[in-house]
Amino acid sequence: MLQGTRDVRANVSLAAVLDEARQRFADANPNSLARQNEAAASLPGGNTRAVLWYRPFPVSFVSGEGCRVTDLDGHTYVDLVSEYSAGFYGHSDKAISAALVDVIQGGIMLGAPNRYEARLAAAVVDRFPAIERVRFCNSGTEANIMAISAARAITQRSKILAFREGYHGGVLTFAHGGSPLNLPFPFVFADYNDSAGAVAVIKEQGDELAAVIVEPMMGGGGCIPATRE
């Protein structure tokens, strides 16, 4: 038998196994499939967050408690994702839930400063010595956009040093060479954890560089922690 023939048969077999696995997944999650099909009529891809999509369709969750989440079809899972780092305290924490209810009952869209934001800002400043003051944003993506824009405006410089495979939001992603949806800031790049290379880029760009944006741990690029250098 020719090598090419064996490869074709192997690929056909793999495709069949994959199809069977997808069918089993669909059979086990009919309510999630129905939700996906219904949502796709009004939401591109059936959701508003591309990272949540996977084939053949994502499982939809209805509740969570502690480290466990339950889907539309009644399956319960141990949550090892923690809302991509936003859910470190677990789901439905009683203290957090009570605080949220207290705030909601008093009104949350008052169109003026409230009594909570300064207390939270003070706690952040107290905990992180490098942070002198805080300005809150609606999302991490928005915060990074505002930080980059502020750096460019204050320094009167244009370029931003980012690191290959980094992720700083849906319009600031540099995996696999970047995204066509990225904001058109003039980025220059270095390799993560290559301090000598980063220094070389900084020296090369000189007075044109407004800021460096870097993750303490590269999340989307493989959960790689930064070295102290």
Low-confidence runs of at least 5 consecutive residues: none
Report on the biggest sheet.
3 strands, antiparallel
CATH fold description of the domain at 137-225: Aspartate Aminotransferase, domain 2
Indicate the percent of residues in helices. Answer: 25-40%
Give the C-level CATH assignment of the domain at 137-225.
Answer: Alpha Beta
Query: Can you name the CATH architecture of the domain at 137-225?
Result: 3-Layer(aba) Sandwich
How much of the polypeptide forms β-strand, as a percent range? 5-15%
- Cα-to-Cα separation, first versus last residue: 55 Å
The side-by-side strand order for the widest beta sheet comes to 1-2-3
- Overall number of strands: 8
Please write the string of helix (H) and strand (E) elements: HHEEEHHHEEHEEE
Over all CA atoms, what is the radius of gyration? 23 Å
Q: So what's the overall shape?
A: globular
Class from helix and strand fractions = alpha/beta
Average pLDDT works out at 93
Corresponding CATH superfamily of the domain at 137-225: Type I PLP-dependent aspartate aminotransferase-like (Major domain)
Q: Number of helical segments?
A: 6
